Each structure stands twice: as structure tokens, then as C-alpha cells.
Amino acid sequence: MRRADREVRSPQQIKDILDSCEVVRIAYQDAEGLTIVPMNFGYQFTLERFPQPENDFPVSLSADGTPLPPDFGELRIFLHSAHEGRKIDAIRAAGNALQVAFELDCDHQVHEGRTPCNWSASFRSIVGTGTASVVTDLDEKIVAMQALMSKQAGMDHVPFTAQQMASVTVWQITSTNFTGKIHTVPRPHGGK
């Protein structure tokens, strides 16, 4: 990340961004070419593995001295769709392991500058890559759909039947390669 001062280094901040964003954009390549699609989502990202999730991870360096992104562990993004269509066809054509890129962003605000070149925007975002796969296990499908309902509708532990699960395709993106970024509201000129 070029702007290290904007990099999210706290697991709690990653979770806060996931909670605030309403849409994930998923990019992939299939037989038709490159595409990107916005979707509602649920997710699984647990803070329990971090002793103090609110604290920033220290900066680690690679062998050549380049700063490494924090290792936040695994993020699973849950989605659902019809049984057929371009997304599902692409996942199946990739042997249930489609490489994807994804992006979530929220809290957008444009900030006027003194000149056109000084305008800016504040936001929070997560960008990453991962593997998309169809979830076939009934219990895992229910967990995924419960996460989606919790995230999108604020409804926790919704009971789903096997018949309901048979009517949709549930899929997920599994990622260990993602970063967060926060660009905060700039202070007014002369402000403190």
C-alpha cells in the first residue's frame, strides 16, 4: 500500500468496515472476459483469535525492507444467487475454485479544497483477493445464509429448512490476502 498512513492495522477496524459496508464488488475473469458484479453479502471474520483486536499490529518488514500488510487471518464472504448464471458458471468452470478480487467501501464524503487539485474524499475500504467456491454442505449453507441475513437484515439465527436451501446456490469467497484503508476527513485549513 503506497499510503501506509491510511492502512488499517487493527482487526477491530477491519470488522467495523465489514459491518458498515453494504455491498461487495467481485471481479473475475471467465470465458466471456473480465467482469465485476456488486452483491449483498454476509461474512465470517472472528476477533477471538486476537488477544487485543482493537490494537494495531506492529509493522513487519520483508527481507528487502518493504513493509508487509498485517496478517488478519481468514475472511469468508458469503453470497447467494440463482443456480445458473455467469457467476456460477465461472465457478464451476474453474473446478469450484475461481480466483477473484473483491472490494468493499463505505463512509464516502467529498471534501472541497481551496483549488480543484486540493479536493479530496474520505472513505473506509477493504480490498483483497481470494477463491470463490459453491458451498454444498447443508449445515455450512445454513451458517452462510444466517450470516447474510444477520448482516443485511439484522436478523440473527434465522432458521432455514433444507427445502429453502435447495432453492438457492450459496457460495463463498475465502481470503487471507486483504487489506483495509481509511482516509479520514481532512482538517479545515488552519484547523487543529
Strand content: 35-45%
Class by helix and strand content? alpha+beta
Largest sheet: number of strands, sense, barrel closure: 7 strands, antiparallel
Poorly predicted runs of 5 or more residues: none
Order of helices and strands: HEEEEEEHEEHHE
Could you tell me how far the N terminus lies from the C terminus, measured between alpha carbons in angstroms?
27 Å
What is the C-alpha radius of gyration, as a whole number of Å?
Answer: 19 Å
Residues in helices, as a percent range: 10-25%
Number of strands: 9
Give the overall shape: globular
Mean pLDDT over all positions: 90
Strand order of the largest sheet: 2-1-7-8-9-6-3
Number of helices: 4
Structure in words:
The chain is of the alpha+beta class and 192 residues long. Helix content is 20%, strand content 38%. It contains four helices and nine strands, in the order H-E-E-E-E-E-E-H-E-E-H-H-E. The chain has helices at 11-20, 86-93, 138-153, 162-166; strands at residues 24-30, 33-39, 42-44, 60-61, 67-68, 75-81, 98-111, 120-134, 169-183. Strands 2-1-7-8-9-6-3 form a seven-stranded antiparallel β-sheet. A two-stranded antiparallel sheet has the order 4-5. Strand 7 (98-111) and strand 8 form a beta hairpin. The mean pLDDT is 90.
Please give a handful of descriptors for the protein shown.
192 residues; alpha+beta; seven-stranded antiparallel sheet; two-stranded antiparallel ribbon; 4 helices; 9 strands; 20% helix; globular
Short description:
With 192 residues, the protein is an alpha+beta fold. Helix content is 20%, strand content 38%.
